[in-house]
Write a structure and sequence with these properties.
The chain is mostly beta strands. It has 1 helix and 29 strands. The chain has a 4-stranded antiparallel β-sheet, with no helix packed on it. It is globular, with a radius of gyration of 18 Å.
Length: 346
């Protein structure tokens, strides 16, 4: 019997209803579908709407700060708690219940630490496990079940993709490889596809977009190209569109771009112009999304002394246009990453 996307079953082991997410057509393959638990609650009940978390960063040294904000409203971020140690450039990902950060650097020492928090609460992070190698400038993406950490600097560039099962704890497992060793490339997702964009390889920036099917294992396939060369930018998505904003372009490594572009995740092709961020100090800030809104937070101006900002801007994902002021982080910082309990992979 062929199981069609949208089918529902009762899992007698978990005593929960599940929905079949179907399959994702990759390059030359048809990936198996995936059963996912149907949520019996809502983000409005859990957290008053989609909650974005921004963790880690540099201000002026490495920090362990976690901020949160409700993406369905506007306003300043609020203190959530702390990572298990201060570090900058950790990767971030989330399910509807957990926010997870992996890797980073503190005082020249790379970390393999993975921490997690329960998004609906506030408080300090708890140890989850370890990455396969200690590195900074690692990034993450996820669906509801599986989280992927990828790329990074060890201090050499790596092409590693590894995964965790978000609802459990433990060390990462090998998933596959990026097409090239890369760092400061950013990710977003639908429930089936993980998208990898830009990065600092070839130095100083790339415009490549690649993808994987999250429920399988394997190397990335080509998706298309960004509208500009970008690394240390922000990436976010709902289930339909992936959005890429800001960062550091080439050939001039001491300026930022305020470009925002988008893709339709279920297709292949090059990114399309979306609009502009309201400010140029956009290198290495955090990004997070609900089903309707995307928020870009923090960053710097890419030039010594790397002036850090606390700006938070938002866009409406299914429209096009320039970003609008949302509020401010609890402090000005760069080299952080964000996640949410309402992004496109869930």
């Amino acid at each position: 019997m062929t199981i069609k996307p949208g089918a529902i079953r009762f899992n007698t082991d978990s005593m929960k209803l599940e929905i079949f997410r179907g399959a994702d057509v990759g390059i030359g393959t048809l990936a198996a579908g995936q059963w996912e638990e149907i949520q019996a609650t809502s983000l409005e009940v859990q957290t008053g709407g989609t909650r974005a978390l921004f963790g880690g960063g540099y201000s002026p040294g490495a920090v362990n700060t976690i901020d949160y904000a409700n993406l369905d409203s506007t306003g300043n971020a609020i203190d959530f708690g702390n990572l298990t140690d201060a570090r900058y450039s950790p990767g971030a990902l989330a399910s509807r219940t957990r926010g997870v950060w992996g890797g980073g650097n503190n005082v020249g020492s790379n970390r393999d630490t993975i921490d997690y928090v329960t998004i609906a609460s506030t408080g300090d992070a708890i140890d989850f496990g370890d990455l396969v190698s200690a590195r900074a400038y690692v990034n993450g993406l996820s669906n509801q079940t599986r989280g992927l950490f990828f790329g990074g600097l060890t201090p050499t560039n790596v092409n590693i993709i590894e995964y965790i099962t978000i609802a459990s704890t433990g060390d990462t497992v090998d998933f596959g490889d990026l097409s090239v060793a890369n760092f400061s490339n950013k990710g977003c997702a639908s429930p089936t596809r993980g998208i990898f964009s830009g990065g600092a390889q070839p130095n100083p920036s790339a415009n490549t977009i690649e993808f994987v099917t999250i429920s399988t294992l394997g190397n990335t396939s080509d998706f298309g190209d960004l509208t500009v060369l970008q690394n240390q930018h922000g990436a976010l998505s709902n289930a339909i569109r992936g959005i890429f904003g800001g960062g550091q372009p080439a050939p001039n490594p001491t300026t930022c771009t305020n470009t925002i572009s988008y893709i339709t995740i279920a297709t292949l092709g090059n990114a399309i112009d979306f609009g502009d961020l309201s400010h140029l100090e956009s290198r290495d800030g955090g990004a997070a999304a609900s089903s309707t809104r995307g928020v870009f937070a923090g960053g710097d101006n890419a030039a010594p002394p790397y002036t850090k900002v606390d700006h938070m801007d938002y866009i409406q994902i299914m429209t096009t246009g320039n970003s609008v002021d949302f509020g401010n982080l609890t402090d000005a910082r760069n080299h952080m990453n964000g996640c949410s309990n309402g992004h496109g992979g869930l």
